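hi! just following up on the protien thing from before. the input was this:
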Amino acid sequence: MLLIHCPYCDETLPEAEFAYAGEAHIVRPDNPADVSDEEWRDFLFIRNNLKGPHYERWRHIHGCGRFFNAVRNTVTDRFLTTYRAGERRPDPESLPEDGQ
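and the predicted 3d structure came back as:
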C-alpha cells in the first residue's frame, strides 16, 4: 500500500484517499488558438515517462479536496516528497533516496 502525505492536511494516508491527476508542471499555452495541431496534441497527450524521480499532481479526494504536487520515484514507487500547488518544484538531487 502506498502512503501519501497531504501537504495541506499534514497527514500521511493510504493511496485510496487520493486520485492521481497526471504529470505536474505542465504549462498550458497562452493562446491555444495560436498553436498548431501538433503542438496542441503534444500539450494534451505527450508526457515524460522517466525512470526515477517524477513530478506528479495528486488530489486529496477523501479529505481536503485540494490538488498538490509530489515527487515519486517510478522505480521504487516511493514518494520522495509532496508540496503545495504553486510552490517551486524541489530539486530531485536534494531529496532523500528512501522517500518520506
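The domain at 3-27+39-94 is CATH 3.30.2270.10 (Folate-binding fold).
The beta strands are 3-6, 11-14, 19-23, 53-59, 67-73, 78-84.
cheers
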